[in-house]
Design goal:
The complex is a heteropentamer of chains A (about 325), B (about 220), C (about 290), D (about 350) and E (about 260).
Chain C: H1 2-32, H2 39-55, H3 61-84, H4 92-114, E1 130-132, E2 135-137, H5 139-161, H6 163-173, H7 175-180, H8 185-211, H9 220-233, H10 238-257, H11 264-278
Antiparallel strand pairs in C: 1-2
Chain D: E1 4-10, H1 17-36, E2 46-52, H2 57-69, E3 74-76, H3 81-93, E4 98-100, E5 120-122, H4 127-140, E6 146-152, H5 156-171, E7 175-182, H6 190-194, E8 203-205, H7 210-222, E9 229-231, H8 238-244, E10 252-256, H9 265-278, H10 284-303, H11 308-317, E11 321-323, E12 326-330, E13 336-337, E14 340-346, E15 349-356
Parallel strand pairs in D: 1-2, 1-3, 3-4, 4-5, 6-7, 6-8, 8-9, 9-10
Antiparallel strand pairs in D: 10-14, 11-12, 12-13, 14-15
Helix pairs in contact in D: 1-10, 2-3, 4-5, 7-8, 10-11
Chain E: E1 4-13, E2 16-26, E3 31-35, H1 42-49, E4 57-64, E5 67-70, H2 76-82, E6 84-86, H3 99-106, H4 115-119, H5 123-142, H6 158-171, E7 176-180, H7 188-205, E8 208-212, H8 216-222, E9 225-230, E10 233-238, H9 240-245, H10 247-254
Classes of the chains: A mainly alpha (about 325), B alpha/beta (about 220), C mainly alpha (about 290), D alpha/beta (about 350), E alpha/beta (about 260).
Chain lengths: ~325, ~220, ~290, ~350, ~260
């Protein structure tokens, strides 16, 4: 209990338990191949949504450019995984390169554009993502153009996706509940006041944006190596909107909400698969109804704070500091 | 659900100035918002002349001659001072009369005339307060609801505001006034009510309340 | 040089289409600050409505355009009442998601009932090309251009000089204060939607006639481009929407002319970003100043 | 009695809905006809599961596993090459016989190392085949020596055709003067076409779908571009002519899979049946889908069981399958061996149809 | 040398000179009033000093460890770091954060560069966090806000919100505190209480305080010196007594005696 706090232990325990539960279900064949795809899709969506929630819910930056960063991660993973001798190494090298590129792009784009407000930022980031897609589309030597890259070794499965989901979530949550996170949140509430209280607005905005880009890119890498194919058509602005829907549906600013929403929408999708052409109609109606009856999202801004729940239950909230 | 206002009974007679005073959060603004239809009370009734105000939407309430200067000014940002005043006269159609009334507002607040074509968003706090007041006057109200009209005003303008209130009373307008500046308010008011946590705890003529020990202690700092 | 002039004509015709859709976009945005993602789909419904009038009922195109306008106005008002009104007090992003839901709904209902295929709109306006200084211009181009300009002027007059226009601007800024002025906020918003959607309906038929091609997904791309046009021009500004439309139309054409056709979409977004960086509220947008 | 379950992994919504939907319809028609004719394997009825993959990669994979978990014995689709690729790892691993209707992408039936994917077949020829055939036709029959290509840059199909066309056209001594591109969904091509006005060329090669190419033809002809226009099977729809306008649809050539005007009674019967059921003319996608479906159904009958291994084997061994899109067998790469047709349009009518080859 | 030296400060908005050629100085531990009719340029003056607006002309210089440092063109967060903090005329709290979080945001610089320790949740993170919390609570206590430390700021009454703004500004450990109409919306009893508090924190934190206020009882009672603005220009300065007698001030601001 010296270097780590009891709350960390609680979260760690929860993550391990979750893993074991899934493992058992997969072994027992209850989570069959079909549900594994659903499971992985949900988990990757969680990675995307948690990142976007940091940008939108905490920093208050309305970004519609998530698809661009996802595409970058996906393509670098695709290229490296195919090119390298060891596919697993390829994935991680590709992921690292994707993260690097995403950071560079996020800085390059973020520093000038993050001073835009609301919808203006949204359309500007959407534009950036579309530019990324057009470039990918036209760099046929590297990316194989609109046909995309297929035959990517299927290195990812539910296990490494789960691990990355846990890591990115913990990382982002810890950031949110740090002093820096508080400052970022303050910027969302009132930029001028935050600045006058000594908060470096540009830095924190860009930081949140970059973190969002990193997670998007990681998610993209995982998805590419799970599915085995990447095509530019898979990263249109509609992909950004899908992620946005998860975040809003769960409750902007609520990370628990993003989890719940990703799971529910994933299951809704499975349920709707049997409805053929009606499926999108039903989905659209569901979307409208959900927003009408729960405009603040499922959980509003509420959060499941497992750590504090347990420490409270143990009655050692105060003295656990040592 | 917070019950901002519990059970409040009071009346305003035609031609009167009635002051509502009370500490922060007592529910004063909520009462005005209920009268102008911005919030609907859980129970009770508000009648104005022959009208049952609870049955009317804000637009209809304005049509009956009620005008509300809300807390926090709520000027139309992005529109000029002039356009703000024109919106105050939204339900009127007498072009000449509107022009004349705008002139009268400018006369009372010369700074507004100087800022005529300026975006209301960039007005100083006090200027916005004056604009909100001027805008309400543009509708030629029969009943004027004022929520802390002197807030943020320089002493010289506070005097002006209270002069205006007395003036328009003379012209036949009824005024329901919320003020932190209880002394001034009670001085010009015919009657007053003291509100605490959603309930009326005291009422009387302006002079009576000014004299009251409770009021002295709680609201006049004396 | 002559080729370049010809390209300018092409750019202006294309720009007219974007401008036409952008006008309705910007109207709605200007009043309730909602990115009405479904606007492009209302335009699509308008096109289909016109298609059935013209090809099944043999209605005259101009009448069809008018009727499509009326139909879409009603549709717009219904959508607003059902889907957007309940969300007026919630976050803007929530309303945006609803708009996206409505967009998916319209598009997929049309696909469900009419199929995803492209249909040919009967060509009813004669092409009648004529030459001015060696540049070929046809009747359709003239028609679209003139319609767009007229609509822009009419709309601008409504917003700038009528009582309703003033009410729209007041509602945009502070709907509660607007109510206190005696403005019927619901009616103003309905009116805005009716007008914006009517424009979309007219545009739908017009584009159907112009390109003689319609499909359930026809609204997506122009919807997005029109949105970009509205932002470039400054959302809420009616002349801005038109200028934005023309700018994008011209840019696409010029980029293609210079041999960069594969990058024309990227160029449009690059233009958007550059303009926003220089003027964060678009060319004609009012920079809403915040008093500290 | 048990039913025999057939799956459809098709684009009913999303970007490729216009191509997946006719295949789904043809599939329905084929299954319905077979059921009316008494079903398969001693009167077992067929049950069809068509699931929408939304033209989305992940969905296509998900739908594939879902169909497999519903115990289908064979799958038709997906349609778009990219979408199909997302489903391939799964059907290969699960050993599910799959027939693609209109996925023309090169090498789709082969794995990364060039080995044939055992369970995957398609009834359409490859992009390169069409491109080469068109290149050959342009130089040999039309005697063209210079060409301009306009591609849909968002469409691998279009780029694939353009590549192989270029290869053959240049090999035969022609030259490509210029390449322009547009994006699927565009409706205004005047800028591209105007930039061709001053150029001297013999033909235009515009591989793409009728959705856009119909408009390109119209706008080109209206601008006074009179050169022959050549395309691929994406042109093969009545809508192309409607979009272009009959008066503009002249001197148009395209490679395709079948000719609705041929006197083969099978073809005419199909057209009648399809029109009767869906109230519209079938296009190539429908024709290919119909062949894919019937091929699978025949294979089940031949296999004599619903064992997927047996069905797979039966598909591979089918000889001279008599389809709407020609009579064919599969080559070693599971591509159909059949000639392409080159159709020519004059005034919106098919004026001629001749067999072409890539040789 | 003065603590803060402002020379010939001017700010134009289009044709309007909101602040025009104003020179003032502030000494250590002073309590200075800034008054003037509505629209005189008081808030704009604060905005210039705290970096929200960039001056059109003139200089602002602050005494720091490196001598007089020019503040023109320095960004607000840097100015705050140099020791200037403020409250706002139109309350600008972080409404959806709790009272104590509002204060802790203002203290974030203190925690130094510990993003790393935070993300990894090292024990150090919890320690500094607890320390900050304790410190924030102490400050809240002075203004009698500690009882509602975990309430969302938006739920506070107007008077409480004004006080929280002061606490938040204090938490940045300023040398100079600028208060823009701290008593607006308060009744006389509440104003009197606030007056005492302001005097008290000046003592306790060894602050220089500048306040804009229209409530003359407050201004006259505690300000050692007063500057008066009208139409952006400095029209008078001096002690409360001097200013009160000044005919220009009476004409422009106080109004004639009734
Ligand atoms: N929409 C609302 N939701 C919840 N509580 C509310 C709402 N509006 C007002 N309240 C609460 O009702 C109470 C009365 O508020 P009101 O604004 O009427 O007070 P007031 O007397 O005008 O105070 P002040 O002098 O500060 O303006 C307050 O405690 C306030 O927090
Ligand atoms: N951004 C701006 N653009 C244009 N004019 C402005 C801007 N900001 C302030 N002004 C004008 O400058 C003048 C000074 O405004 P300021 O807010 O400084 O006044 P103030 O002295 O604080 O008044 P109050 O006591 O009413 O708050 C006002 O007349 C205002 O209209
Ligand atoms: Mg109040
Ligand atoms: Mg001020």
């Amino acid at each position: 209990m010296n270097r780590f706090h009891i709350r960390n232990m609680v979260w760690l325990a929860a993550a391990v338990l979750g893993f074991l539960a899934l493992y058992a279900l997969v072994q027992a064949g209850i989570i069959n191949r079909f549900y594994q795809i659903t499971l992985v899709t949900i988990m990757i969506n969680i990675i995307y949504a948690v990142g976007l929630n940091l940008v939108l819910g905490v920093a208050g930056q309305f970004s519609l450019g998530h698809a661009g960063f996802i595409a970058i991660g996906a393509y670098s993973a695709a290229i490296f995984t195919k090119a390298m001798e060891s596919n697993t190494t390829g994935l991680y090298v590709g992921m690292a390169v994707g993260v690097g590129l995403s950071i560079i792009l996020a800085l390059f784009v973020g520093i000038p554009t993050l001073r835009l407000k609301g919808d203006y930022l949204a359309i500007a980031t959407l534009g950036v993502a579309e530019i990324v897609r057009v470039i990918i589309n036209n760099m046929r030597d590297l990316t194989n153009g609109p046909a995309g890259i297929s035959g990517i070794p299927l290195v990812s499965n539910w296990i490494n996706v789960y691990v990355f989901m846990v890591i990115t979530t913990i990382f982002i949550l810890n950031f949110v509940y740090s002093s820096a996170g508080r400052a970022t949140m303050a910027i969302q509430q009132d930029e001028i006041a935050a600045e006058s209280m000594g908060v470096n607005v540009t830095m924190y905005k860009v930081l949140a944006f970059v973190l969002g880009a990193i997670t998007a890119s990681i998610g993209g890498s995982l998805q590419a190596t799970f599915l085995g194919i990447v095509t530019p058509g898979d990263y249109t602005f509609e992909r950004s909107i899908d992620v946005l829907i998860i975040v809003v549906f769960g409750g902007i600013g609520s990370f628990t909400g993003s989890f719940v929403a990703a799971i529910l929408l994933g299951l809704l999708n499975v349920f709707l698969q049997d409805y053929g052409q009606l499926r999108m109609v039903i989905y659209a109606i569901a979307l409208v109804l959900i927003m009408i009856f729960r405009p603040g999202g499922l959980l509003g801004t509420r959060e499941l704070r497992l750590g504090s729940l347990v420490t409270k239950a143990l009655g050692k909230d105060k003295e656990a500091v040592s | 659900m917070i019950n901002a206002v519990k059970s409040v009974n009071f009346e305003v007679n035609t031609g009167e100035i009635v002051a509502l005073i009370g500490a922060n959060g007592a529910g004063k603004s909520t009462i005005l918002r209920t009268i102008s239809g911005l919030v609907k009370p859980s129970q009770g009734s508000i009648t104005y002349g022959d009208h049952d105000l609870l049955k009317l939407v804000p637009k209809k309430i304005v049509e009956t001659g009620i005008s509300h200067v809300p807390e926090g000014r709520h000027v139309f940002k992005g529109l000029t001072v002039k356009e703000n005043l024109e919106l105050g006269a939204f339900l009127r159609n007498d072009k000449e009369g509107i022009l004349e009334d705008a002139k009268a507002v400018y006369q009372r607040f010369p700074i507004l005339e100087e800022r005529k074509n300026q975006d209301a968003a960039t007005l100083s706090g006090g200027e916005q307060q004056m604009l909100a007041m001027g805008r309400a006057l543009m509708s030629k109200p029969k009943l004027l609801l004022l929520d802390e009209p002197s807030m943020g005003l320089a002493p010289i303008f506070i005097k002006e505001i209270f002069n205006i209130i007395v003036d328009i009373q003379k012209q036949g307008t009824t005024v329901l006034l919320i003020e932190q500046n209880a002394k001034m308010a009670l001085t010009i008011a015919n009657r007053g009510y003291v509100l605490e946590t959603g309930e009326i705890v005291l009422s009387g003529t302006g002079a009576e309340l000014l004299e009251s020990d409770d009021v002295q202690k709680a609201y006049l700092g004396g | 040089m002559q080729l370049f002039m010809q390209q300018l004509v092409n750019g202006i015709s294309l720009g007219s289409i974007y401008a036409l859709i952008a006008l309705g976009y910007t109207m709605v945005y200007g009043t309730i600050r909602l990115i009405n993602f479904a606007h492009g789909d209302i335009y699509m419904v308008g096109a289909f409505f016109g298609y059935f009038l013209v090809s099944v009922l043999n209605v005259n195109v101009f009448l069809a355009m008018l009727l499509a306008g009326v139909f879409c106005a009603i549709l717009g008002v219904v959508i607003e009442k059902v889907a957007y009104k309940p969300l007026r007090k919630s976050t803007r992003v929530a309303a945006l998601i609803t708009a996206i839901g409505v967009s998916y709904f319209l598009q997929n209902v049309m696909i469900y009932f009419l199929g995803p295929e492209v249909r040919a709109f009967p060509s009813t306006i004669p092409v009648m090309p004529f030459r001015v200084f060696g540049i070929v211009i046809n009747m359709k181009q003239v028609f679209v251009f003139v319609t767009t300009v007229i609509l822009m002027i009419v709309l601008n007059a409504i917003v700038k000089h009528t009582k309703m226009g003033k009410a729209m601007r007041a509602v945009a800024v502070d709907s509660e204060a607007a109510e206190l002025m005696g403005i019927d906020v619901n009616r103003v918003i309905s009116f805005t939607f009716a007008l914006g959607s009517a424009l979309a309906g007219v545009a739908g038929v017009l584009v159907g006639v112009y390109y003689n091609s319609i499909s359930a997904t026809m609204g997506t791309t122009p919807g997005l481009k029109a949105f970009v046009a509205a932002v470039v021009g400054g959302v809420g500004s009616i002349p801005g929407a038109m200028i934005g439309g023309y700018l994008i139309g011209l840019l696409e054409t010029i980029v293609t002319f210079m041999g960069g056709s594969m990058y024309k979409d990227a160029a449009v977004y690059a233009l958007l970003i550059v303009i926003l960086l220089i003027k964060p509220s678009g060319l004609f947008g009012k920079n809403v100043k915040e008093k500290v | 009695q048990d039913t025999i379950k057939i799956g459809g992994n098709l684009e009913l919504s999303g970007a490729a809905a216009a191509y997946g939907t006719p295949i789904a319809e043809a599939l329905q028609l084929a299954v319905e006809q077979r059921n009316e004719a008494g079903g398969l394997l001693d009167g077992q009825q067929l049950e069809l599961f068509i699931t929408d993959n939304q033209s989305d990669l992940t969905e296509a994979a998900s739908v594939a596993t879902k169909l497999i978990s519903q115990d289908v014995v064979g799958i038709i689709g997906p349609t778009a090459t990219g979408v199909a690729k997302a489903a391939i790892p799964i059907i290969s691993e699960e050993k599910m016989p799959t027939i693609l209707g209109a996925s023309t992408g090169d090498g789709l039936t082969l794995d990364e190392n060039g080995n044939v994917l055992e369970y995957l077949f398609r009834v359409c020829f490859e992009d390169s085949f069409q491109g080469l055939a068109a290149g050959q036709y342009a130089t040999e029959t039309l005697e063209a020596s210079s060409a301009i290509i306009i591609t849909d840059q968002a469409l691998d199909y279009s780029l694939g055709l353009a590549d192989s066309f270029t290869e053959r056209f240049e090999a035969n001594g022609g030259s490509i003067i210029k390449t322009e591109s547009y994006t699927s969904g565009d409706t205004d091509f005047s800028a591209i076409l105007t930039s061709l006005l001053g150029q001297d060329f013999d033909i235009l090669y515009i591989p793409g779908y009728y959705t856009e190419t119909g408009l390109i033809i119209k706008q080109a002809r209206e601008l006074g571009i009179t050169q022959p226009i050549i395309g691929g099977d994406g042109y093969h729809s009545k809508t192309l002519i409607e979009l272009a306008g009959a008066e503009n649809a002249s001197d148009i050539y395209f490679t395709t899979h079948f000719y609705e005007g041929n006197d083969d009674p099978k073809t005419q019967q199909f057209i009648d049946d399809f029109s009767a059921k869906f109230g519209k003319q079938p296009d190539t996608f429908a024709a290919l889908g119909y062949d894919a479906a019937n091929l699978l159904l025949d294979a089940i009958e031949i296999a004599g069981s619903t064992d997927t291994e047996a069905i797979t084997q039966a598909i591979g061994e089918i000889e001279n399958f008599e389809g709407i899109t020609g009579t064919f067998s599969f080559d070693d790469n599971h591509n159909p061996i059949k000639p392409a047709l080159m159709l020519k349009l004059e005034n919106g009518e098919i004026a001629s149809a001749e067999e072409v080859s890539a040789e | 040398m003065s603590l803060l030296e402002v020379k010939n400060l001017t700010k134009n908005f289009g044709g309007l000179a909101a602040v025009s050629n104003v020179s003032i100085h502030l000494e250590e531990n002073e309590l200075v009033g800034l008054i003037g009719p509505n629209g005189a340029g008081k808030t704009t003056f604060f905005n210039l000093l705290t970096g929200v607006y960039v001056p059109t002309e003139g200089t602002i210089e602050l005494l720091t460890d490196n001598g007089m440092t020019k503040l023109n063109n320095v960004k607000p967060d840097k100015i705050n770091e140099l020791g200037l903090a403020r409250t706002f005329q139109n309350i600008r709290l972080f409404k959806d954060q709790t009272v104590i979080e509002n204060v802790m945001v203002a203290m974030h610089r203190e925690q130094g560069n510990s993003v790393f320790s935070s993300i990894l949740r090292l024990a150090a993170h919890y320690r500094t966090n607890a320390e900050m919390r304790a410190k924030a609570l102490e400050l809240l206590k002075i203004f009698n806000l500690d009882g509602i430390a975990d309430e969302k700021a938006r739920n506070l009454s107007y008077g409480q919100q004004r006080r929280l703004e002061i606490v938040r500004a204090l938490a940045t450990q300023p040398k100079i505190l600028f208060l823009d109409e701290p008593a607006a919306g308060m009744n006389p009893a509440e104003t009197a209480e606030l007056t005492d508090l302001i005097a008290q924190i000046r003592e306790q934190f060894d602050l220089t305080i500048v306040l804009i206020e229209h409530d003359m009882s407050l201004v006259m009672q505690i300000c050692q010196r007063i500057y008066v603005l009208e139409y952006g220009r400095l029209i008078a300065q001096g002690t409360a007594e001097e200013v009160k007698q000044n005919p220009d001030v009476i004409r422009a601001y106080l109004g004639g005696v009734d």
